[in-house]
Amino acid sequence: MPRFLEIEVVLRGVRPKVWRSFLLRADATFAYLHAAIQLACEWQDYHLYAFFEYTPKGVDWDRIIAEAPAAAGGDTYSDRPPRPSAHQVSLDSILSKAGDKCFYVYDYGDGWEHEITVLSAPLLTERLKRRLLGGERAFPLEDSGSIPGYEELVANFNTPPEKLDEEARHRQQWAREINPDWAPEKFELARVKASFDRPRQTQGGARTKKLRIATRHDVFPEPFFVNDPTSEIQPHAVAGVPLDQEPSIPTAEALPRYRERRNMQRELNARMIKSLPKDAIWKCAQSIGVPDESWLSSCEPNDLYMVADFAAHRHTWRGATALARLLLDLRPDTSPVEQEVRESLGNARFSMWMAHAPHPGIGVDLIDIIAVRRVFIVDEGLSQNTPNGTLFAARLMETGGYCMTTGCVLPVSPDTVLHVMLSIDPKFDPLDRRRKTYVLGRELEPELERLILARQLAENAGAFLASDAPKARRRTS
Fold first, then answer.
1. Which of 7, 119, 168, 246 has the fewest Cβ atoms within 10 Å of its own Cβ atom?
2. Gap between the Cα atoms of 207 and 190, Å rounded
3. pLDDT class for 473, splitting at 50, 70, 90?
4. What SS3 state is found at 133?
5. What is the architecture of the domain spanning 4-138+185-196?
6. Which phi-psi region, left, alpha or beta, contains residue 31 (left: φ > 0; alpha: ψ -120 to 50)?
7. Do residues 338 and 264 lie in contact, with contact meaning Cβ atoms separated by under 8 Å?
8. What is the pLDDT of residues 168-197, one digit of tens each?
9. How many CA atoms does the CB half-sphere of 12 hold within 13 Å?
């Protein structure tokens, strides 16, 4: 019989008590515990995290059990030796019996500290991965300003706006825009259980599929795509070079400039997503074929991030997208770096990519499958965990002389690549060396992006049929 841990999560420094309890398999990893906490507490998984050894006095910042892997934040922790990845440490190596404890710290800016306690360690005959058991009160809103900001929001939650000072009124308005349903005392156990409990059944009765990272060798032998030098079509790409040329690879000394722009990009991307109206992500999910709104609370986090990224760039309300509003919202004191990153976000391009040659600690040499060009992206996280031949979809931007993702990467299967390429050209053959370069104009990118997302999300989650996805038009010029 598998052994489970009954775990209680309590937010420290808050009264009345804010808590959740759930069952997890004892042989799960700390990364899985992180995912469970994010779902149970309804955090948004925007920030880094780490697990620390328990001390009666609180968190000892030097006693780390496991931390977010580099890929989760995009950068390595350059100012100290690496600590164990949360994907590599099992729960039962630290938490094995009733009374065992540790700390979980999420968002190093706001510093939300959670006390993790094992209440029991039962043996169960049931086939399950996790189950939500209970909880009380709502956890704080993301980026609400640590404990003081949360307590101020709670204290003024029911106060009429006209009785608040300007700062408190602004905070109250912000909270209601971020999540109109949030209330300090509100916790809907049944609703959260629907997305938390595993295994669960989809509408069709099939169990949710796990994400599959495929390699080119499943479908595409060497050599992969070959450019046709006689083609009159000039590919538009992000810092693209022909396949037979080596892209420029930055040195390790150039990485601090990359990190500065990466941090700025993350901040701007989070701002765009937060600015979306409540139903924007759902409407964009509908546009790629998701029939049931419950998918938004039950899909894998990476899938949801891809849909949110799509919504920020594609969803229009009141005549503009979140991206367009970001580009227009320039303060007089906006730094040159921020202006540069904003412009780069506006020119970012979505496509399917294949890892051609990872360069550990720096980035990855990629092949743009659609534009048939090579691109080098600077990404320290991907450089460590992206095997040669990995297929994925992402939006790439160029800033400061570097290429980087806009923050979301979706592994795709060879089946998805073939489906998309055949929708562009029914005669597509990955083995044909004589074919012309495939290049789509920017007017087709939203349609192509919907097709890629629809096909791969269907394969990942079984939430809808890929045949229901919109078809990309074949280029005729």
1. 246
2. 20
3. very low
4. strand
5. Roll (3.10)
6. alpha
7. yes
8. 888 888 888 888 889 999 999 988 998 888
9. 18
DSSP 103: E
- DSSP3 helix / strand / coil % (the chain, rounded to 5): 35, 20, 45
The conformation of residue 284, written as its DSSP 8-state character, comes to H
* Rounded CA separation 477/468 (Å): 27
Q: Which two tokens stand for residue 332?
A: 């007089």
Query: Can you tell me the distance from the alpha carbon of 246 to that of 374, in angstroms, rounded to the nearest whole number?
Result: 8
Give residue 22's region: left, alpha or beta (phi > 0; psi -120 to 50).
beta
- Closest-CA residue to 22 (of 117, 106, 113, 97): 117
Tokens 């969803």 appear where? 315
Question: Which residue type is seen at 394?
Answer: A
Q: How far is CA 343 from CA 283, 326, 330, 449, in A?
A: 26, 10, 11, 21
Q: Are 24 and 9 in contact (CB under 8 A)?
A: no
Cβ 410 vs Cβ 456: under 8 Å: yes
Q: What's the token pair of residue 189?
A: 């156990």
Fill in the amino acid letter for 252: A
Q: Is the preceding omega at residue 446 within 30 degrees of 0, hence cis?
A: no
pLDDT digit string, tens, across residues 396-425:
998 877 899 987 888 888 888 888 888 777
Question: What is the distance, to the nearest Å, from the Cα of residue 143 to the centroid of all Cα atoms in its chain?
Answer: 17
| Cβ atoms 327, 313 nearer than 8 A | no
**Pair of tokens at residue 257:** 């400039």
- Residue intervals in the chain for CATH 3.10.290.30: 4-138+185-196
* CB-CB neighbours of 36 under 10 Å: 22
Structure tokens at 152: 């101020």
First and final C-alpha spacing in the chain: 63
